[in-house]
Amino acid sequence: ELPPSEFMQVADSTWLVLSVVSNGREPPGCQATGVTKIARSVIAPLAEHHVSVLMLSTYQTDFILVRERDLPVVIHTLAGEFDIYKEESGECVPVTCDDVSNGFLKPKPAASPTLHPVQSPQTRFCVLTVAPDTLPAIATMLIDVLFYSHSPSWDAATGSQDVDSITFFSFSLIEGYISIVMDAETQKRFPSDLLLTSSTGELWRMVRIGGQPLGFDECGIVAQIAEPLAAADISAYYISTFNFDHALVPEEGIAEVIQLLQQRQESGR
């Protein structure tokens, strides 16, 4: 319904959304949440089969976007670990995995993944939700923050944004559930009684992946970040965009996360 515009660029591929629903078989004591919870069982296998994914963590759950043309590979790759369903007319219908014997799903020879630079701004972030019926009360503030308030400081000499003053605000509305990621200073502008967060009210720090636009074609970016964090049982919310990928981790764990990712980069050289 959006009119054609020279200002809007649309990727060629159509993407489908996968959501992973727990079946209660998680090992006891597993504390990691977000992308690290599904790193080994979903993210890593898809990367091994050269499936590019976009990752979107929200306050409620995590979503993995895959290209529609990759769906047969995705189903075959994940069918051994998961019961897979598709939605038809509002109902969940089991998906059967046809037996494939011609070998087209075998992983290709592993190419050396591109090691993208990782930066960590000093900004502290909040992961929040809002009750849908209270959204109108903050609509004006949301519009102001989304479209008018921020003017990122750019270095004219290098053409890049100062990473310590990064502007990041994420709003998602999925099946009626609202999820917001904003910096702690922006949060102060909203009525505190309308923004809901965890009982601990923890703050998050960000690691930003990429030194130039990542695009949508490269495989394994999410896996490179999620797997070492999963191994260390560190929670992370992950948001993929065209320009950069963003992993939010608990503030008290940021030093360990940076060390883990630096070790990953050094071992990959």
Describe this structure in words.
The protein is of the alpha+beta class. The chain has two domains: about 15-100, Alpha-Beta Plaits, CATH 3.30.70; about 120-225 and about 235-269, VC0802-like (2-Layer Sandwich), CATH 3.30.2130. It is about 25% helix and about 25% strand. The protein contains six helices and 14 strands. It is globular and about 50 Å long. The N and C termini lie far apart (about 45 Å). GO terms for molecular function: arginine binding; identical protein binding. Belongs to the GATS family. It is found in: Cytoplasm, Cytosol.
Provide a concise account of the structure shown.
With 269 residues, the chain is α+β, with helices and mostly antiparallel strands.
Features:
single chain; alpha+beta; 6 helices; VC0802-like; 23% helix; 4-stranded antiparallel beta sheet; Alpha-Beta Plaits; 269 residues; 2 domains
- SS field, number of helical segments: 6
Query: How many strands?
Result: 14
The CATH architecture name of the largest domain reads 2-Layer Sandwich
The run of helices and strands is EHEEHEEEEHEEEEHEHEEH
Share in β-strands: 15-25%
**Would you state the CATH class of the largest domain?**
Alpha Beta
Question: What level of helicity do the residues show?
Answer: 10-25%
What general outline do the C-alpha atoms trace?
globular
Biggest pleated sheet: 4 strands, antiparallel
- Looking at this structure, what is the CATH superfamily of the largest domain? VC0802-like
Do you know the CATH topology of the largest domain? VC0802-like
Structural class by sheet pairing and helices: alpha+beta
Overall mean pLDDT: 83
Can you tell me the number of structural domains?
2
The gyration radius over C-alpha positions equals: 19 Å
Measured between the Cα atoms of the first and last residue, the distance is: 46 Å
Keywords: Cytoplasm, Phosphoprotein, Ubl conjugation
Pfam families: ACT_7 (PF13840), CASTOR1_ACT-like (PF21389)
GO molecular function, one term: arginine binding
Protein name: Cytosolic arginine sensor for mTORC1 subunit 1
